[in-house]
């Protein structure tokens, strides 16, 4: 399934690792602690994987 939020989403990875997949791209966007990303409203995306060895903690802010 895909997330498709009606608001913009700013995401920061606080711990662990994760990879995001975007519907319009073939590659994965890998995030490490301290990395952040702006996901525009309406952008179809999903979490492809998270670190199996360490808890993955996100901070996500949704705004218009």
UniProtKB/TrEMBL annotation:
Superkingdom of the source species: Bacteria
Residues spanning the signal sequence: none
Pfam families: Cupin_2 (PF07883)
Species for this entry: Desulfobacca acetoxidans
InterPro entries: Cupin_2 (IPR013096), RmlC-like_jellyroll (IPR014710), RmlC_Cupin_sf (IPR011051)
Cupin type-2 domain span: 6-60
Protein name, UniProt field: Cupin domain-containing protein
